[in-house]
Design goal:
The complex is a heterodimer of chains A (about 200) and B (about 220). Helix content of chain A is about 65%, strand content about 5%. In chain A, helix 1 packs across helix 4 and helix 2 packs across helix 4. The longest helix of chain A has 25 residues. Chain B has about 220 residues and is α+β, with helices and mostly antiparallel strands. Chain B contains five helices and nine strands; from the N terminus they run αααααβββββββββ. In chain B, the strands form two sheets. A five-stranded mixed sheet of chain B has the order 1-8-7-3-5, with no helix packed on it. The chains are: A mainly alpha (about 200), B alpha+beta (about 220). The interface between A and B is large, with 84 and 87 residues.
């Protein structure tokens, strides 16, 4: 690898995981998040000189990532159906590991997974603006000043948006209906059939 | 002291209230049961949000992307530097571009928003493409307020266990809208270690008791 390659990698490497995390929060899918970060790397590689001169690189990189996400999103979202989350795990990992963060108590595991699922449902139903500011601030821990760089939005606006996002999230979580105790007993009117059945 | 507003609660938890005011607010939350509960609930929610998991990425993908970017740049330099490598460099760039992953949306283009009429049962189909037969999949459908799945009055969520056949499966939802303007239908399918959650925006056409049924939209393909 040339000195130039090494230089770019040294600049970018400390930011790869944080970039991926935000990409995942934006896209909701591991593969799409990986694609988004790859696109970013391909786009930024020729701009190494410019990157070297940037003082606060992380928010700047996130800004470019976010713009890339918006561009992709505009190109591809014509359907009213959007894929909100995909919990497909990578090969060789415990598929449920990332849904559960307990000490192995089976009842706690189930409850934790259910809580995570309810929370993911509710977050998925937020508007894009609300979801983005909530993901950056409350989930990933960026400050409003950093988010101001990413979204190019005044701090006052971000503060209001964050407040409304949290309020809306609380409403959605309160709306989550109680589950039936035994789904097997339900008479299901929704039919599931294979191709070709009338 | 007055109870904490939502805005003040946010400011307190975000660390934007300092000094005497913060002490005062926390003291109030300890003596006021309602504010204490709200503060605790909000703290728990924030902890849950911070703990939302992220699947581990394949870091080698990023290293390969940097290597491809370097190769593409080197190819461009050779072309600029001297025409003798032109054909080879174009071939290299094309080969590099061929490895770039593309985002392939599974939704077909041109599907309009889904609309149903008030007070009529209408069926909406979701086409679920599965590479193989999957037994014991868990299905969950949450409908917006004012909408119900026919046969399940008053239930906003129904869950059941079923199977997906190899190929295309149609999840047919007979919906009736009794009020409101619609909202999100959240559908999730879980099989062993994989869950997909889909959000579908549904609109309810306003009007009187009798309507011409709106066109049933074409199935929206989603790949499991």
């Amino acid at each position: 690898m040339s000195n130039r390659d090494t230089g770019f990698e040294l600049l970018i490497r400390p930011h790869l995981r944080p970039l991926y995390r935000v990409a995942y929060r934006l896209t909701g899918r591991r593969e799409d998040a990986e694609d988004l970060v790859q696109e970013l790397l391909m786009k930024l590689y020729p701009r190494q000189r410019e990157i070297e001169s940037i003082e606060r690189l992380r928010p700047w990189l996130l800004r470019v990532l976010y713009c890339q996400f918006i561009d992709n999103h505009r190109k591809h979202s014509r359907s009213p159906l959007r894929l909100a989350t995909d919990s497909t795990a990578g090969a060789g990992t415990d598929p449920l590991e990332y849904l559960v963060a307990t000490d192995g108590d089976p009842e706690a595991d189930t409850e934790q997974a259910a809580q995570n699922r309810n929370l993911l449902h509710a977050v998925a139903r937020l508007s894009e603006d609300h979801r983005t500011v909530l993901a950056l601030h409350d989930v990933e821990g960026y400050t409003l000043e950093e988010i101001q760089t990413v979204l190019e939005c005044p701090i006052g606006t971000l503060k209001s948006r964050l407040h409304r996002a949290r309020a809306r999230l609380r409403e959605l979580l309160e709306e989550t209906p109680a589950r039936a105790s035994d789904p097997e007993e339900q008479q299901v009117t929704a039919r599931l059939r294979g191709t070709g059945n009338s | 002291m007055q109870c904490l507003s939502e805005s003040k609660l946010d400011d307190l938890l975000d660390g934007r209230v300092s000094g005497d005011e913060a002490v005062e607010l926390k003291a109030h939350a300890q003596t006021c049961a309602a504010c204490g509960r709200r503060l605790a609930a909000e703290q728990r929610l924030r902890q849950q949000l911070r703990a939302l998991p992220v699947p581990e990425p394949d870091m080698a993908i990023f290293e390969r992307a940097i290597a491809r970017a370097a190769a593409a740049q080197a190819a461009r330099r050779r072309w600029v530097g001297g025409g003798w490598a032109l054909a080879a460099s174009i071939a290299l760039v094309i080969a590099v571009a061929g490895y770039l992953p593309r985002f392939n949306p599974v939704e077909p283009e041109g599907i309009p928003g889904l609309t149903i009429a008030l007070h009529q049962v209408q069926e909406i189909s979701l086409a679920v493409e599965s590479p193989r037969r999957l037994q014991d999949a868990r299905f969950s459908v949450i409908v917006p307020a004012g909408v119900e799945v026919a046969g399940h009055p008053g239930q906003r969520e129904i869950t059941w266990t079923g199977s997906l056949e190899a190929g295309q499966n149609l999840l047919v939802l007979p919906l009736r809208a009794e009020a409101g303007t619609g909202g999100d239908i959240v559908t999730s399918i879980t099989h062993v270690d994989r869950t997909k959650i889909y959000v579908l925006n549904l609109k309810v056409a306003p009007g009187g008791d009798v309507h011409e049924p709106s066109a049933i939209q074409a199935p929206v393909n989603v790949t499991m």
